[in-house]
Write a structure and sequence with these properties.
Elements (H helix, E strand, L loop, with lengths): L2 H7 L6 H9 L3 E3 L2 E2 L11 E6 L2 E7 L15 E8 H11 L2
Subunit structure: Associates with stalled 50S ribosomal subunits. Binds to RqcH, 23S rRNA and the P-site tRNA. Does not require RqcH for association with 50S subunits.
Family: Belongs to the RqcP family.
GO molecular function: ribosomal large subunit binding; rRNA binding; tRNA binding
């Protein structure tokens, strides 16, 4: 399944066009590599997505062509959520 379609179906991103845009900006990684919107994803792949100052890491649990809103969260498991801005500030202040 295409990465942008999975992001939309899983409700990690609201719209597929938005999913394509963030992929094109290099803000999505699949298994540690920057991924484009057309990248094929499969069960077990790890996604890292940057939303502004937040970074979310999730593992794909299953793929479906259509999913109800209530079941969308079952497509993935959140592994880690972190604030990117705070980490950058901490590393800058530790250099002084």
């Amino acid at each position: 399944m295409r990465l942008d379609k999975f992001l939309k179906l899983s409700r990690l991103v609201k719209r597929r066009t938005l999913a394509k845009e963030i992929c094109d900006q290099g803000r999505v990684m699949v298994n540690g590599k920057v991924a484009k919107a057309g990248t094929d994803v499969g069960v077990g792949d790890e996604l890292t997505i940057r939303f502004g100052h937040k970074q979310v890491t999730a593992r794909i649990e299953k793929l479906q062509e259509s999913v109800k809103k209530e079941e969308a969260a079952s497509l993935f498991t959140i592994l880690k959520e972190e604030q990117v801005q705070e980490e950058e500030n901490e590393s800058l202040s530790s250099n002084f």
